[in-house]
């Protein structure tokens, strides 16, 4: 049974932009209990819609889907060539003293402990994240994260690697930081890309729920 359709932020004949809720897979997982996902829900309402990129199950926010094969090819190339601009909001543990910074650490899958990833300076893939402090709170900091590469778990692992794991992160935060929130405090706040038909530069935003 297909679940509730995520909020559609924009639609035309070529693309769909949605606000994926926290806790919903982007694509099906392994096993029938993980068949429900954003891609399936959207495709049920808009036949032919197909996934272009993914957000982690516990990350909320903006996703774009293509409505045909040609649009999918155009959008996929933009992601591959890093022409898409993405901005995330997060709340991390501790106090970041600098106002801005860059985390430049190569990462790869942890083959001994999936689905986690690890920093590996020899075999990891280049990964870079810019960050900017938005607000310093008691024992935590609200930040904007700008991924310059698009690796799996990049933002979560990079913030852990600099000793500021994201609150509510069940993969990378220690127990006390995990317990500071009832969900992963990571949200895809905005996404910008060139429309696959018109080439117009488009930006979409999803309100942060935390």
Strand content: 25-35%
Helix content: 10-25%
| Class by SSE composition | alpha+beta
Distance between the termini: 29 Å
Task: Say what the CATH topology of the largest domain is.
Answer: Pseudouridine synthase
Number of domains: 2
Order of helices and strands: EEHEEHEEEEEEHHEE
Number of distinct beta strands:
12
Mean pLDDT: 96
CATH architecture of the largest domain: 2-Layer Sandwich
Specify the overall morphology.
globular
What is the CATH superfamily label of the largest domain? Pseudouridine synthase
Provide the CATH top-level class of the largest domain: Alpha Beta
- Biggest sheet statistics: 10 strands, mixed
Give me the number of helical elements.
4
Rg calc: 17 Å
Runs in which pLDDT lies below 50 for 5 or more consecutive residues are none
Characterization of this structure:
The two termini are about 30 Å apart. This protein has four helices and twelve strands, in the order ββαββαββββββααββ. The relative contact order is 0.18. The chain has two domains: about 90 residues, 2-Layer Sandwich (Pseudouridine synthase), CATH 3.30.2350; about 100 residues, Pseudouridine synthase (2-Layer Sandwich), CATH 3.30.2350.10. The chain is globular. Strands 1, 2, 3, 4, 5, 6, 9, 10, 11 and 12 form a ten-stranded mixed sheet that branches. A two-stranded antiparallel sheet has the order 7-8. Helix content is about 15%, strand content about 35%.
């Amino acid at each position: 049974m297909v679940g509730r359709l995520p909020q559609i932020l924009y639609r035309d004949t070529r693309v769909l932009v949605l606000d994926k809720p926290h806790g919903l897979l982007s694509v099906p997982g392994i096993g029938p209990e993980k068949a429900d996902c954003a891609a399936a829900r959207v495709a049920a309402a808009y036949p032919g819609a197909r996934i272009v990129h993914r957000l982690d199950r516990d990350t909320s926010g903006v996703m774009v889907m293509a409505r045909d094969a040609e649009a999918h090819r155009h959008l996929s190339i933009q992601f591959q060539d890093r022409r898409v601009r993405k901005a995330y909001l997060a709340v991390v543990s501790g106090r970041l003293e600098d106002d801005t910074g860059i985390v430049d650490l190569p990462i790869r899958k942890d083959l001994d402990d999936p689905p986690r990833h690890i920093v590996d300076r020899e075999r990891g893939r280049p990964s870079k994240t810019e960050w900017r402090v938005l607000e310093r709170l008691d024992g935590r900091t609200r930040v904007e994260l700008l991924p310059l590469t698009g690796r799996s778990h990049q933002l979560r692992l990079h913030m852990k690697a600099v000793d500021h794991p994201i609150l509510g992160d069940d993969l990378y935060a220690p127990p006390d930081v995990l317990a500071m929130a009832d969900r992963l405090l990571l949200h895809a706040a905005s996404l910008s890309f060139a429309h696959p038909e018109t080439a117009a530069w488009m930006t979409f935003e999803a309100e942060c729920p935390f």
